[in-house]
Amino acid sequence: MRYTHPMTDVVVPRAEDFDEIAGLLALAFHVGLDPELLEVERGIFEPERGLLVRDGTTAVAYAAAFTRELGVPGASVPAAHVTGVSVAPTHRRRGLLTALMRRQLREIRDAGREPVAVLWASEGRIYPRFGYGLAAQRLTISCDTTELRLPEQAASVAGTLRLDQPAARPAELARLYDRVRAHRAGWSDRDERWWRYVLADVKSLREGATERRVLLHEGAAGLDGYALFRTKDEWDRGGPRGEVRVDEMVAENPDAYLALWRLLLSIDLTRRLSFRTAAVDEPLLWLVNEPRQLGAQLSDGLWVRVVDLPAALAARRYATDLDVVIEVTDELLPENAGRWHLVGGPSGATCTATAASAQLACDVRALGELYLGGAGLGALAAAGRVRELVPRSLAAAGPAFGWHRAPAPMEVF
Fold first, then answer.
1. pLDDT tens-digit profile of 156-195?
2. What is the DSSP letter of 357?
3. Residue 287 and residue 177 share a domain
4. Which residues are annotated as catalytic?
5. Smallest Cα–Cα separation from 244: which of 221, 267, 220?
6. From the annotation, which residues make up the binding site for acetyl-CoA?
7. Residue 180 and residue 216 in one domain
8. Per-residue pLDDT tens for 259-312?
């Protein structure tokens, strides 16, 4: 398949183009080409979902997507996991990124499989102009552990902690992850290819730390919690200053969660801990004796683009009963524009075009911000992003768009 750009051609790459694309991404993101990492990434490469721009025989711009599902409030939906968006330094400011993003959105819409697209942004200012909204934020925890304390585990709680190599337990980890993912907006599904990718322990990415380990918690019914982590050795004149780096925390119940953190915060010869993808409502904030010592910093996580509006809004669940007409604008995908009657609740939803008067009005970016239940409808209205056309519509509809847990970005893809 081939599309024409004013300067050059946009083509769908072939499997044998992987190395050339990897070189472009390394150039754009200022990283080296590590053969071990390339082999891991080759395993999740989907060439048929890429868009590649060449200037002559040289690859100069690229955008792609992975075929996965995304956890949303009360459901899991097919979502284009957009990745690898890059332009060579020599070809910036020529409209290539715009051409790729527009083409990609049109293809996703026309294929009719994925009602939303989702991505991590290297720079937050890039993607709102294509209708992406910040749907899930994250916390970065970086703390000194010497003064932190957690509650004692109740004596009646039965559980066992064990250490293992992550690659030795993929099936068990996958089963637990799937059970917990069913209740967490923002988590993506993982097939065998993705588990191989997630558990790969590429040496060049360790940043001087140890190999990755998995801490397992087994309760009365079996495995109910795990944490992927590594440690980094460091000493100063005062003694050991090692660091624990947590990559992933999955717990099915509060007992497993507390037990995992109690160990991670008290590993011998370590004095610091970091966790880059904590949820905004991470329970650890309410467990430690001094939350400010966690050094939690808020950052953006997942950006969502509603591609097929009625399918997307009908696919998720709503915290309370909802009956509202929303007028939406969408410059890039005009099929989404117009008035939509959204009726929903905890058990399901419908969304249909209507000629009825609208109660609320917004652009498609605001719907992306609301989609995972992380942004408040009232907050967006206060920012001028949502307009109330009928009095008290915000108060009536606002609670429905939330969820009992904040969306949690789990992994960068």
1. 888 999 999 999 999 999 999 999 999 999 999 999 999 9
2. P
3. yes
4. 127, 413
5. 267
6. 85-87, 93-98, 122-123
7. yes
8. 999 999 999 999 999 999 999 999 999 999 999 999 999 999 999 999 999 999
